[in-house]
Amino acid sequence: MTTSNSGATLVNVIATRGDSTTVAFAIRAASVVFVAALTAAAAQVSVPLPFTQVPLTLQPMVVLLGGLALGARLGLASQVLYLAAGIVGLPVFAASITLPPGALRLLGPTGGYLMSYPFAAFLSGYLADRGFDRRYVTSVVALLAGLVVIYACGVTWLGLFARIGSQSAAVGMTAAIAGGLAPFLIADVVKLFMAAAVLPGMWRLCGRDGR
Known about the structure:
mainly alpha; Arp2/3 complex 21 kDa subunit ARPC3
């Protein structure tokens, strides 16, 4: 379902309210940095689970809401910036005594989830560019699409490519689903239904057309 201004995300509407292209660029750039920083902050709210190498974090919802607010290109850029910060060694990944630091984190058991973030944000943002962020039901669809990307990439990487500890082979898809999907699915779906109200609520505050 779309509106008369459905091609513009909330951040883009705010950025283009004025006449200055410099101000518009600054708002978009600051929004990208803010979402990247918020993703890093969400990683610090991390709960390790004794039966899996994958911790429970708030990151997926931040990634997907960032995509809805920023749109496809800026949403992707925010997560590329986040991963770049982690690769160069900044402490933006979830704190862990077992998971590798820096760029090596992307090769570990949570690497698939992390590497999926730009794609998940892009997909949710792509749908937001088409007005899916304006109403609750379509926001649920956009967030759910992005969450599927995160789980598909995360579980596939964990099951087929990641090495845990001294293991010489990946754990396999059955173990990956048991350790990387099943413990988190219900909680993430509940959070998704709660988070889906955020962007429609912000649109109502700004006026449905962003004015």
